[in-house]
Amino acid sequence: MTATTRLILFGGSFDPIHNGHLAVAQHALRALNGRQLIFVPAGQSPHKIHPHTAGAHRLAMIQCAIESLDQAVVSDCELSRPGPSYTFDTIRFFKEQTQDSAELYWLIGADQLDDLPKWYRIDELLADCRIAVMVRAGYPTPDMSRFEGAFAEPIIAQLRRNIVQTPLVPVSSTQIRRSLMRGQVPQGLLPDCVIRYIKEHGLYGFKQST
Ligand code: ATP
Asked: With CB atoms 3.0 to 4.6 Å apart as the test, which of 108, 147, 164, 190 could cross-link to 112 if both were Cys?
């Protein structure tokens, strides 16, 4: 009997992708015993105002950041879909792509957990994939008892089973954008190729001091 392929999907604005994303996603890939890690940059995240940077730039930065990672790829499925980037639609897209033969996991950081019951078609989404929650520096340890009454007991049990104890990497894209805006390149938080890309394209208001 062959084991089911397990795909680990990691969605977000990635504006820009940072070393926190890379560290936690690689850890989750191993912890969940995934075959492949698929970064899915959002076109228009329903959870955020607007990405600061065009999708093509965010995609290019992810591509260079994951170049040396064997099991990682990036998908432009949300970027090429008009309208809000609902996870529900993305999971349906991957179900179709894999002819429903893969186990799909969707990674989120602990900071996203509060809003989960409000996600678009959440009950169907939870039937179609497993949400795996990664711990995040600065946020409480995920406590699924908050969902009692909102989700059925087997779903809550599944959410509990899929908490991933990733390393705590205290970094966010917001913090990086703020530094770049001030003309500072944050040290140790971005892959070198992403720093080069940002400088080359003058992203995030970054201006090199002469
Ligand atoms: P911003 O500061 O712009 O809100 P962000 O750093 O949270 O961005 P996103 O691209 O929004 O980055 O994140 C994509 C996913 O990665 C989200 O589920 C988020 O919770 C998770 N994530 C981002 N950074 C970390 C981190 N340092 N540790 C754990 N999870 C993270």
From this structure: 108
